[in-house]
Amino acid sequence: MGITLFLMSQKGLAVLNAVIENKFTEIIDKVVVGTDKNVVNDFSKNIVQLCEKEKLSYCYRLDDYTVNTEFSIAISWRWLINLPKNKKLIVLHDSLLPKYRGFAPLVNALKNGEKFIGVTALYASKEYDRGDIIKQQKIEILYPIKIEQAILKVSALYQEIVVDLFKDLNNNKTLDPKSQDNSEATYSLWLDEQDYKIDWTKEASYIERFVNATGFPYKGAKSVLNGEWVTIVSVKQIEDVYVENRDVGKTIFLREGKPVVVCGRGLLIIQEAKYNKNNKSIFPLKSFRNRFL
Q1: CA 49, CA 19: separation in Å to the nearest integer?
Q2: Which residues in the chain show pLDDT less than 50?
Q3: Whole-angstrom Cα distance, residue 56 to residue 46?
Q4: In this predicted structure, what is the pLDDT of residue 244?
Q5: Host H or E run for residue 123
Q6: With contact defined as beta carbons under 8 Å apart, do 220 and 214 qualify?
Q7: According to the model, what pLDDT value does residue 82 have?
Q8: Where are the alpha helices (DSSP H) in 80-238?
Q9: How far apart (Å, rounded) are the C-alpha atoms in residues 35 and 87?
Q10: In what residue span(s) does the Formyl transferase N-terminal domain sit (predicted)?
Q11: Are 54 and 25 in contact (CB under 8 A)?
Q12: Residue closest to 285 by CA, chosen among 267, 262, 258
C-alpha cells in the first residue's frame, strides 16, 4: 500500500510532519509539491527541505511525473489533478461541507464570524467539493482571531484526519463515505486584488474580522490614505458615538496618536498600518484630518 501526497501551504507542511512523526514514511510513494505566488509564503521550500531530510521522493507540480498508487491525498491544492479511473483522490477542504464549497473557505468563514471552523476529507468529484465525505472535524473559535492563528488550529485538524486516513488505508480498512446534502450547500468565491480592499460602509465588527482574515500569509487588508495605498495590519473596535451625517472612512479621534475611523456602524482604531510602496509605518500621522478610502 502506497500513498501519493499533493502538498502546498503551511497545512501541507503540517500534514507531512505528522505523517513522518507517526512513522508512515515508508507508505509515502511520492510527494508532489505546489507553489503559489499569490501568498507571501507557500511553504514549498519547507516541504522540499523536509522531503530531502527524510529521503522522500518528490517533484514539483509542473514536472513530469506518474501517480503509481491507488490512493492520493491533496492538501491545499488549487489545480486539477487528472488520474485514471482506477485511482482514488482524497481532497481535504477548509470547511464543514457542504458549507463553503469553493475557494478561500477559511478566509470567508472568518469574515462571516462563524462559530466553528473545520476540515472535510472527501473524494474528488467532477464539480468541485461535491464528493462524498469520508471524514470531518471541527473546532470552536473565539473572536478576534487572526487568519494565521486559525490556520494553526485547522492544520491540527488536517494532521488528525490524514493520520487517521493513513492508518485506515495501511490496515486495508474500507472507507465509509457519506453523500452530501446539496440542499444545505453554500459557496465561497475566489479572491483577487479587489477583495482585499476595506469597505468602510460595513460594520466595525465585520471590518475587524476582515482585517484579521486577510492578514499573513495573505496580502492584507488595503485602503487608500492621502492618495497612497496602505495595508491595515491591526485594528480594534471601540465604543461607538452618535455621528451626524456619518461619513465613513474619516478620522474622528486620535487615541495615543492612532486614528479612530468612522465605519458604517461602529468605530475602529487603527493600531498598525504600513505604506505599500516602502513597507514603512504610517505613524506618526502628519495631520488629524485623514480619510481612509
Answers
A1: 15
A2: none
A3: 13
A4: 96
A5: strand 116-123
A6: yes
A7: 87
A8: 105-111, 147-170, 204-213
A9: 24
A10: 86-144
A11: yes
A12: 258
Q: With respect to CATH, is domain 3-188 assigned 3.40.50.170?
A: yes
**Dihedral angle over CA of 180, 182, 183, 189, nearest 10:** 120
CA distance 139 to 116: 6
Mark 165-174 as b/e (b = at least 16 C-beta within 10 Å).
bbebbeeeee
Q: What angle do CA 31, 217, 140 make, to 5 degrees?
A: 90
Q: What are phi and psi of 217, to 5 degrees?
A: -85, 5
Report the chain's C-alpha Rg in angstroms. 22
The Cβ of residue 274 has, within 10 Å, a number of other Cβ atoms equal to 16
pTM above 0.90, yes or no: yes
Alpha helices in 144-224 (DSSP H): 147-170, 204-213
Structural contact between residues 92 and 154, judged by C-beta atoms closer than 8 angstroms = no
Q: How many CB atoms lie within 10 A of CB 278?
A: 8
Asked if residue 23 lies in contact with residue 52, where contact means CB atoms within 8 angstroms, the answer is: no
Phi, psi of 18 (to 5 degrees): -65, -40
Is beta strand 116-123 parallel, antiparallel or unpaired with respect to 133-140?
antiparallel
The letter for the amino acid at 71 is: F
CATH number given to 204-275: 3.10.25.10
Residues in the chain: 293
Q: Is 227 left (phi over 0), alpha (psi -120 to 50) or beta?
A: left
Distance of CA 17 to the CA centre of its chain: 19
The domain ranges of the chain are 3-188, 204-275
d(CA 42, CA 34): 8
Phi, psi torsion values for 154, nearest 5 degrees: -70, -35
- Residue 286 has a pLDDT of 83
